[in-house]
Amino acid sequence: MRSKLLISKIVFGGVVVVAIVLSISGFLTFKDNIEAMRRASQENISWSATQLERELTRFMDSLGTSRAGTASSTVDINQRFDVLWSRVAVFQRGAVGARLRAYDSEHVVERLFDELKRNEVAVVSIKSFDFTRMANIRAAFFPLSEQLNDLSLRITVGEEQKAAEIRAQMRSSANFALYASVLTVVMIMGALVYFVLEGRRFRKLADVNKALAEDFRNASEVKSRFLTMMSHELRTPMNGVLGLLALARANEDNEEQKDRLDQVDRSANRMLGMLTDILDFAALENTQFSPMEKPFFSNELLLALPELLGPVAIQAEARLHVAAEGTLPVMLCGDATRLRRTYALMITYFLETAGARDIGLKLAYENGVLQARIEVDYIGEGWSPDLLFGERNNSKDSFAVEALGPSVARVLVEKMGGTIALGSTADSKILLSVDVPATAMASKQLKLRLSLRSSPMEMVCKSSIAGLPIDFVDAESANQTEVILLETGIDDEASHVADIRAQSPLAQVFGIGRPKQPELFDFVVEMPLQAEQLRNRVLEVLR
Description:
By secondary structure, the protein is of the alpha/beta class. 62% of the residues lie in helices and 14% in strands.
């Protein structure tokens, strides 16, 4: 499939390149011919040579007329001489002169120019009825008249031949442009037909792939529903077993029987944990699964892990340490439940598999990432937590499944947009790094003061912002206060607000109720008290 797609791209690219080359070639050829025609029209030396011959004839006629005694002045002779001079001078330079010299093999124009220079003084100083000088000048130019006539004929014939050649070239270029255009159209049409056929084939393959994907999705959903159903069905009797075990242990006085019941209880709880993992695994394979983004206190996460994993650590005879490292924000936004579940699954895996004797979990926060570092000191050498990364032997002769807990933990981290990295410490302990994006909601506790007139109002306000990292302060801590909740509606409201702002210039004043002058307050919560509105505004200050 990929090779055919590559061939299609190469064919299309080749057609485009050939079409562009043909179009450019035809355009440049036609442009060159047009330019040649334009130059020929601008540099018509045939007409210029005829004009030169005509001016020489007029000059000689003016000399003949004056010599016959029909003119009383030499003004006409001098004027004709000047015009002839200018005509010859034009032919001595520029593109016109270059083309003329190509025809003038006998150097007629050059000799004419020499003759003009030689007779310049005689013409300028000629007098009326100076017939002898006029006759001499006319005799000097007379042989050149016939030679100029021959030159004009040669130029006329040569220019006609060049024009014929240019017309032939233009016909050839027009034919070339026509053939190139036709060939380009044919190639493009062929390419379009090819791609239409390929498009139909790809659409058929896409339909087949879509049907296969739909079948796979349906099968995955059926499997997930089966796992969910079986897990729920098994959890119900297992909870019943655990309940009966608890009753039996409470009423059993025999120590030996108690130990046996404890072993059964641990096994049953382990089985219940596996059923929970199966439920999580089924949920993770559901395409609609997405992490929940909710505010939570980092301290609650730190306290929950020892409480959750304490019994497992005691059973494995291992020490467990959970602590914050560096500056950990008071409140974060993320999926606290799945974070707690991820850390618990990983630590449980180490406790039950590695023979761990000491496990330390440190939580830190940096650049929008909640960083967990799990250090494991274990018994023995050469052990590696491969199942956390899904590594196993995939040879044909082996059959193995991933450990369910690590598999769930790994996918949970991926779903939350995090990463897992395996390393080691300087003292050869296993170091597992789990980085998950999280938004810091509050890096410290908010200093808040209540300035309310009744105890019930204080209770309502406190319940509205319960659970937030807030340190309630009194009037003596005015310089540290960040937010003040002030009950409105009193007579001297303006002066009261002014006094409060003077005592706490950096604090924001929130009005509770309906103030007479709302512009005096940074924020107003009207009565009846909108708890969600007040809570959201306090959260904005925390951020």
